[in-house]
Known about the structure:
74% of the residues lie in helices and 0% in strands. By secondary structure, the protein is an all-alpha fold.
Amino acid sequence: MSEYHGHLTGRQVGGHEISGSIGMQIIADLTAAPATRLAEQEEYWREHMKHFVQHFELENYGFQPLLPGDEVPMEERLFALANWCTGFLNGIGCALDASAAKALLKDDETLADFTEITNLDFNASDTNENEALYIELVEYVRLAALNMHENLKESLAAERSESEPVH
């Protein structure tokens, strides 16, 4: 689930609409689930995506990456965080065209940082020090995604207004 959530987040950050029927098509593509199974779960997915978009757009930064709780061993939480970042990178790659992605890579180190996180060593013990570092890393990922969203929202809006035909 973490990777799916990261992918949806990357799509949202990149300016894609992820709710409604478009979101359902993204879920279908990601999960490769049979249409009958998706139809059975459609209400869940639509509600999940609606909730996600609402929390992502809150001004009080209500967004949280979907990751396992503290009761899960550190190795599994690190693996989920790496998967979330992988999903994010894939999602934003699907959302942005080549020139926008190139500009983003030039001006923002977040994607390079997320790539580094995908290569984490998962063999970490459950110590207080590792717990503190994990919490700090998750908070960085959360705020970096929100910051990238705000920066891209402005540049994508400017790009759209420039490409609108003048009558």
